[in-house]
Design brief:
The structure is a single chain. This protein has a domain of 108 residues. Helices cover 23% and strands 26% of the residues. It has six helices and eight strands; from the N terminus they run αββαβββαβαβααβ. The longest helix is centred in the first third of the chain and has 8 residues. It is globular, with a radius of gyration of 17 Å.
Length: 168
């Protein structure tokens, strides 16, 4: 991710820095996507990583290029409570849904569907997760959770109401 501020010294930099954007990243394993990197100096990023092993690798002390960044140790889903996270060969495709290996075989992408392990994880619905995080404004939502996106969005009316953009 690029760390330079493209707006350094311009009037828009001050305006953006005084009015930060909240970036909610559901499906953060491997790090935040760089969609908002050109304005990272004015972005507060919140991510979620429910698997303890992967969460422990995240450096929550270093926000990187973001104005602020934190990752929380639970999954975002339709329900609050405990759910089973299925982790396939390629763990970026971890999901709260039951993977269908036949789909992976059909498209020659079995690494995304062949489950290697299942772990019980804490989940929150998005409205509750953001309330717990202290995030008051909801601007940009990136959600990539292997098919459960609509469930998350449907269960988060307060968050969805204020969003400026959604990337699925």
């Amino acid at each position: 991710m690029q760390n330079s501020n493209l707006f350094e010294g311009l009037a828009v930099q001050k305006l953006a820095a005084e009015n930060p954007i909240s970036y909610i990243d559901i499906g953060t394993r491997g790090g935040f996507q760089d969609d908002l990197a050109p304005i990272a100096f004015a972005v507060d990023a919140i991510g979620f990583e429910p698997e303890k092993e992967a969460f422990d690798k995240i450096d929550n002390e270093n926000s990187g290029p973001w104005r602020n960044a934190k990752t929380l140790p639970y999954a975002v889903g339709r329900l609050t409570g405990k759910q089973v996270l299925s982790i396939p060969e390629d763990p970026v495709s971890a999901t709260l849904l039951k993977p269908n290996p036949a789909i992976g075989e059909r498209f020659k992408k079995s690494q995304f569907f062949n489950v290697q392990k299942e772990v019980e994880v804490e989940t929150r619905n998005l409205d509750e997760a953001l309330k717990e995080s202290g995030c008051q404004f909801h601007d940009y939502l990136k959600i990539d959770i292997e098919g459960a996106e609509l469930e998350v969005i449907a269960a988060a009316p307060q968050t969805v109401e204020g969003l400026l953009a959604v990337k699925t």
